[in-house]
Amino acid sequence: MSSNFVAGAVERRRELSREAFVLEFERQKPVVVEGGGGAALARWDAEYLSATVGGAELELLEGVYSARARGEGFANAQKRMRTLAEYIRALLRGESDPGYLFNTESGVLLTNPAAPEFQVGWGRALNPGLAPLAADFELPGFLRPESLIYAALILGGPAQASPLHYDLGGEAKALVQLRGKKRVLLFPPSEAAFLSFPSWFEEAPAAFRVPHASEVDLDRPEPEPERFPELARAECLGTELGPGDVLYWPSFWAHHIRNQDAFTLAVSVTVEELHTNAMQLRETLGILSRLFLRMAGDPRRGFDLTSRAGVLAALRALESELFSEENRKRSSMWSWHNSIWHG
User: Fold this and answer.
1) CB-CB contact of 141 with 38 (8 Å)
2) CATH code for the domain defined by 6-271
3) Cα–Cα distance, 151 to 275 (Å, whole number)
4) Domain limits of the chain?
5) Rounded to two decimals, what is the model's pTM?
């Protein structure tokens, strides 16, 4: 994992109350809280998981999250079904690409049935084979239990990493590290302009080319400066997680996470942080439409809105405008509204 872009370390706390979390960190910046994990930290080793929930069926992606997968153009990408016990044995044998229990609905062990609005997507994707683990798992004390959307197992070895990406639904995360170590890089939303995310408006994106996953490969010692010259401008925070560490990061922070050990286990807790209603989305639509119409009326732009390709090109231009030097650090609706409406 490249460390060329680390501007500072994630702050650490030995304890963190709900009140201090809201005041200092929530929706603002990441923090690592030590001493978490509860009963799961004490019990969840390879033997316990195999004995307790080893029969749980998992859908794993092979050829996607290994260090060499990107360089191979994901040519060997495939889904593979394994039980948890089979997968654990493959990890302990040191298989080169046993798949990665990450970013799969089959890893969900806990949902929030008390919140009907969260019962969509992975918020309703509980794997019944993993459900017995919920009795051992304690939510980090600085979170509101009502904000839980779901919690999922992440399990892998040193061959696997989650590439640089952000989470699509506006959720925040708390990563509870239980076994092994992880290295993490975190980029605030203000740095997204430098991270080479593919456009939402590409005509025909290639496999695994998605708008929330960067094209930059941070596992390279030097991540292709000639191809990604803006990357050198990006600032980020870094940290290493060990057993009992809980890492929180706010909505839309991009993150790259690499496992360090043969059996690296964590629980990813997904929580609602951005409360959004129809009026907010209407306001956003109005602001973006006004900016788009202004750009479309500028003959220097040369927009062609008579074809699908022309419309997509115009939308890509609008998308780029949002990350201009003037705009990339805006963080309030008031600022966005007035800069566009009266600009």
Assistant:
1) no
2) 2.60.120.650
3) 19
4) 6-271, 278-341
5) 0.93
